[in-house]
Amino acid sequence: MAIINQVKTALLLGALTGLLLLIGNFWGTSGLVIGLIFAVVMNFGAYFFSDRIALAMYRAKPATEKDQPELYKIIREVTHLANVPMPKVYIIPSESPNAFATGRNPQHAAIAATQGILNLLSREELKGVIAHEIAHIKNRDILIASVAATIAGVISFVANMAQFSLFFGGDREGEGANTIGILILAILTPIIAMIIQLAISRSREYLADDTGAKIIKNPGALAEALSKLDASIKKSPMRFGNPSTAHLFIANPFSAKGIASLLSTHPPMEERVRRLRAL
Questions:
Q1: Which residues of 228-257 are buried (b: 16+ CB within 10 A; e: fewer)?
Q2: Inter-helix orientation angle 179-216/219-235, to 10°
Q3: 34 burial type by CB count under 10 A (0-12 exposed, 13-18 middle, 19+ buried)
Q4: Across residues 119-127, what is the average pLDDT?
Q5: pLDDT value of residue 89
Q6: Secondary element (H or E) of residue 105
Q7: What gap in Å lies between CA 267 and CA 257, rounded to an integer?
Q8: How many CB atoms are located within 10 Å of the residue 124 CB?
Q9: CA distance 244 to 196
Q10: pLDDT tens track for 242-260
């Protein structure tokens, strides 16, 4: 299962890159270069500072081992099993049960858990959640998400340029791009890029579930934890934060419903639980 998800991620990143090259061939190199520079600068900052931004956004406070001895003990156990450095530990002052990992690499990582998740889960269930988050760190998912966001950002930038070209009339470099072609480029490519980016995020969630379960050799504990989180978040979603950061959490903290669930960065919880129970 883990190998399948790794291959799926590689294929999806390849599809995203292919879409980028298609736009480059269709529209010319100048807009592509400008978009690439813009996206790299934006996502470079996000890559290096996203941990501080996310922790501040969710009012996370550093937790000491004296204040949270059991949480520290669980994280030490899991990091030892996963052979990764001990991350910084934070507590989010929210009764909505959830957790996320952030940081650009295993040497600069942090795990934040809400007060609600500490109150809701048993020790083994919490250990499963921590293993899932450690798996994100071990698998360098922040880097992969940053690469995907950069490519998608370039595609959106160039598509916007195409819209301006269509509005003002004519193509930028006289390459014969007709109006219908530009319209298709401007409308469809950002949508396709977003769908691929969401698929990458979902694939990494499945991989983190699989990796985390194997780290602690207890998929049932993580499956039970996810079931509890799903039920509890529906009753008590996060009251602060930003939906654009929902992908960081082990479960969508804002409980997306209806059409919004189709654009979720998380796979269906029922399917995640089913896969874990099948391990």
A1: bbbebbeebbbeebeeebbbbbbbbbbbbe
A2: 120
A3: middle
A4: 97
A5: 97
A6: strand 99-105
A7: 13
A8: 15
A9: 16
A10: 877 888 899 999 865 554 5
Q: What pLDDT is recorded for position 30?
A: 65
Single out the residue of 60, 130, 125, 66 nearest to residue 90, CA to CA. 60
Query: C-alpha distances in angstroms, 73 versus 10, 42, 226, 232?
Result: 35, 37, 21, 25
Helices (H) and strands (E) in the chain, counts: 10, 4
Write the burial class of residue 274 (CB in 10 Å: 0-12 exposed, 13-18 middle, 19+ buried): exposed
Lookup: tokens for 199:
């698929």
Catalytic residues: 133
List helix spans (H) across 58-140: 69-82, 115-120, 123-138
Asked if pLDDT for residue 165 goes beyond 70, the answer is no
Query: Angle 7-9-13 (CA atoms, 0-180°, nearest 5)?
Result: 120
Residue partners of 159: CB distance under 8 A and separation at least 6:
23, 185, 186, 187, 189, 190
